[in-house]
What we know:
The protein is of the alpha/beta class. It folds into two domains: 2-205 and 398-412, Rossmann fold (3-Layer(aba) Sandwich), CATH 3.40.50; 214-395, Rossmann fold, CATH 3.40.50. It has helices spanning 2-20, 24-34, 36-46, 59-75, 88-96, 113-123, 137-145, 169-176, 186-194, 207-216, 222-228, 241-253, 270-277, 305-308, 329-332, 350-358, 367-377, 380-395, 400-412, and strands spanning 51-56, 80-85, 104-107, 127-131, 150-155, 180-183, 200-202, 233-239, 258-263, 282-284, 296-298, 314-317, 338-341, 361-364. The chain has a seven-stranded parallel β-sheet with strand order 3-2-1-4-5-6-7, with helices on both faces. Helix 9 (186-194) links the parallel strand 6 and strand 7 (200-202). Helix 1 (2-20) packs across helix 2 and helix 3 packs parallel to helix 6 (113-123). The chain is globular.
Amino acid sequence: MKILYFLFLELSAGILPVLGAFVPKIRNFLKQRAGALPALKDFRSHHPGPVAWFHVASLGEYEQARPVISTLKSHRPELGVVVSFFSASGYVPAKKKSNPEVDFITYLPLDRKAWANQFVEILDPKLAIFVKYDLWYHHLSALKRKQVPTYLIAASFHKNQRFFAWYGGFFKLMLQGMDWIFTQNESSVELLKSIGYTKASLAGDTRFDRVSTTASNPRPFPEISSWIQGRPTLVVGSAWQEDMNRLLPVINAKPEYLWIIAPHDITSSSIDLWAKELHHSSTRYSVWDSSQEVKVLFIDNVGMLASLYQFACMAYVGGGFGKGLHNILEPVGFGIPVLFAKLRKPEKFPEALQSQMLGCGFAIQTSEDLMAELSRMEQPEKYAKACEVAKNWVNSNLGSSEKIVSHLLAKHFTP
């Protein structure tokens, strides 16, 4: 498997530029990484001090890293922080919305041995922290050769992953190279033990720290607050077409609600198509005159969603019918019930399963299911109970970032 992996990456380095001439996605993938190493070299020439490297796949994993970054910087403000992304869907919004606690953002080079060695050599991190399970063999090997302490945080494993498969020896090597693994749940610790890995502990899901911070100090939107004026409002986060197929009939049937809808793809023409199917007035946020009375507000910019849940009495989180459920903990952080699609692979989203078990998350398959859950939550006692469960769930899971950082400080920093 190691030889096949090596050959695949080496061949990809030669083949991808050819394919990029015909496939825009591949062309963009290569273009995004073209200047990564020179830019990193320039950064290090101006910031020669110790840095912590965080690698994330995309925006969701970045949200899991952020409370750890914040906690680490609060203890060691002199430490630089570099965050690498694999996906443009994480890199682009993170780059647009600057974070004063992050000193440099970059794409991760393709995991070719020579490029991985260059990246790690130039970066020269004091420690490296990978998030969840976006692991790359040659980058990890380069870290090991330089004896850089390497950690995996917010890890969430299930038995069907390649790490635990009969053919997974090569992938197990990447886990076994970690100095320590901090997991989201106890079952992940047990799975690691089943392959002989014992340097792991339960720290919890760092997103609880993140959503709690956001909920305690959300970004203000006075024009939206004035528009709502206490009326019942449902916020839809990361809406895909499959979600809107279920939502549109419900929106038309519930004129007593205001709706704030944040599409997954804000550049999509879908917003115009959805607006045509509505029986109520609607507009895009970017052209909205706040004196204009509408029932549906489409959010067509990035960076607002996490704070918009402050206005919701209930939320619907999209993506579950397609590529992957968006972050349900963002609305839960505000102490409200959350609806989402009935998942085909629930083991990939343990927080969704737990929300259902506790009674603050509700899975739907059809518009009729959605109507039924809305009607149930309109009963004051049931709604109050779901809100109470949501708040207690968040409060009981705070502190995972501090657990992780305390370990790092004790191991690698003098008091």
